[in-house]
Amino acid sequence: MARRVVGGVIAGFLILVANPAMAAESAADQISAFRLKHGEARVARDATLDAIALDQARAMAAKDHLSHDVLGPFGRRVAPAGAGRAAENIAYGYESFDKTLGQWIDSSGHRKNLLLHNATRVGVASARDASGKRTYWAMVIAGDYEPRPRKDGRRLERVVAVKRESAPSARTKPTGCHIKLLGLCL
Fold first, then answer.
1. Is 35 helix (H, G, I), strand (E, B) or coil?
2. SS3 63
3. Whole-prediction pTM value?
4. What is the DSSP-derived secondary structure letter of residue 53?
5. From the centroid of its chain, how far is CA 113?
6. From CA 40, how far away is CA 103, in angstroms rounded?
7. Could you tell me whether strands 148-149 and 155-156 are parallel, antiparallel, or unpaired per DSSP bridges?
8. Coil, strand or helix at 65
9. Helix/strand/coil (H, E, C) string of 74-139?
10. For 23-50, how does the pLDDT look when each residue is reduced to its tens digit (9 = 90+)?
């Protein structure tokens, strides 16, 4: 019996490693569990959001730079998802999603994004830098897929973009900015 359990655990681990889709679903489940504990709805994995998150993670890894704007403005990047509301969390440093999620939960801004009201879909991805030593993470969470009517009766189609970034403080990479104001590096 013990041999079967160990064999099942090893087989499950190998399937998870070999199938990134299952790993992403696990991330959606973990985010959903956190959201449910705090009165928000479950989120499901979304292929479009996964692709947006993967592009972001790969671009940050390629440039070895933690930034929401590495591929351009978030609103433009998330527009193909067709969501009325969306938020993005990014991070680097941890190899596992569990630790990255924990870091986001412990940060008030990231936590707020995880608990985005009316969110129903999520995409999560990671990529390693060229040296293979640093893992970059991106999560895009979205909701309000039905355009909401405005007071004048017309449909309002927009993206509300909220971005949060984090990095372990001991590994913060210098940006050359002394002050960052409205996206400008001074």
1. helix
2. helix
3. 0.69
4. H
5. 9
6. 19
7. antiparallel
8. coil
9. HHHHHHHHCCCEEEEEEEECCCCHHHHHHHHHCCHHHHHHHCCCCEEEEEEEEEECCCCCCEEEEE
10. 545 899 999 999 999 999 999 999 999 9
